[in-house]
């Protein structure tokens, strides 16, 4: 029997793609890049002023959103909404390990490894750290806070909302605007829907294009040290191409390919952690400092989440906490869609608390082992990492110095490089899958985007980072654009969560009647 030509799946891909939402944000990013390169000083000044206004003058907005997202996630899990099952199946689509590994690796990219190794150094000499106590206690605590419950709550509340939209209500448009339909009604089919979707895709492109700016230089330097290859832009491009090939192959084979790559990434990740923990000789210190940091975080969580430094004695929350909340919000455009998609068969309660378990277990273990090993070298006087960083102003060289204290240092750097490639590939295949779905005018629940659309996004998401490595100013400016983009994203997150509660309340009322 021939397929019905009137069904969405039977229509040509070119007629199913929402070209406005797909192309316009990408062109905006390209125009911005051109302006950054042509007028670097003027563009930097303007963007810096906007970022100062949003982050300094309106910084409380981000802090309130963060704490509100965390409280909201707990309410989702503990309230009557927690019993809602995402989909009409009693058995989860993926095992706990596969689900947790895909969620953890998709949400963090290789940034988790970069920051785990160096974030304590960024805080160690901050006046605020010394005001609170000692470097030992607080330089190890703040990384857990900035990568802890509040950042993951942004992902979780949206993952629940999107999972409900896709698997329970079976809506065919997998977009931010569609998640607002219960609240905005038919307005999402017109101007306001386009504004929401264009904002979301713009933030997605800006966020994904800039994530390489943080960790790729470390990857390039590690390969240069091991193989004696000169560190050049050509080497960095080669690394990006390899990452692109790996994640394109995975995403080309669909969710099964993504699941296998995520599992491989987790094995490599824990192999790296074991290498540092057992090979570095700082095991006792790592565990004890980690326990102290967890205790500090638990005891001071509310005060850390609400501290605004109103007198600007150090501007610590403006420089760090608000920056992190904004950056996680930009990544919320893609990652929660992916988490919601792979959560089919789980209840909302399982999604919330399972999300926290796997997310926090991964990030906390990474920071406690990798971060506290370097902190231990500093505190025990084995290696003056703060002196190296102060002298070179180069975090990447300082991280390489950490690895050179480990046995079989070249092996360690190879393991680091391979794990980073796996993290990048796993994150970007999830982003490619989401961006491909976002490009469609409608996509049925369970239907995957056409391979040609996935291939288009796989290439597009890599072209911009390759272009930007030739201009450090452009990369810095685009990171600022990402932070600015988080401001409207915050309002959209509020609309989505409000819509979820309205729709889920109707759903439960229908079930009881």
UniProtKB/TrEMBL annotation:
The family line of this record is: Belongs to the BCCT transporter (TC 2.A.15) family.
Entry protein name: Betaine/carnitine transporter, BCCT family
- One cellular-component annotation, GO: plasma membrane
The principal localisation class reads membrane
What PANTHER family does this protein's entry cite?
Answer: HIGH-AFFINITY CHOLINE TRANSPORT PROTEIN (PTHR30047:SF7), HIGH-AFFINITY CHOLINE TRANSPORT PROTEIN-RELATED (PTHR30047)
Instruction: Specify the protein's topology with respect to the membrane.
Output: Multi-pass membrane protein
Species source reads Enterocloster lavalensis
- What molecular function terms (GO) are annotated for this protein? transmembrane transporter activity
Do the record's keywords include Translocase?
no
InterPro entries listed in its UniProt record: BCCT_transptr
Tell me the compartments it is located in.
Cell membrane
Transmembrane segments annotated in the record for this chain: 20-39, 59-78, 99-124, 144-166, 191-214, 234-254, 261-278, 322-342, 354-375, 411-434, 455-471, 483-501
Recite the UniProt keywords alphabetically: Cell membrane, Membrane, Transmembrane, Transmembrane helix, Transport
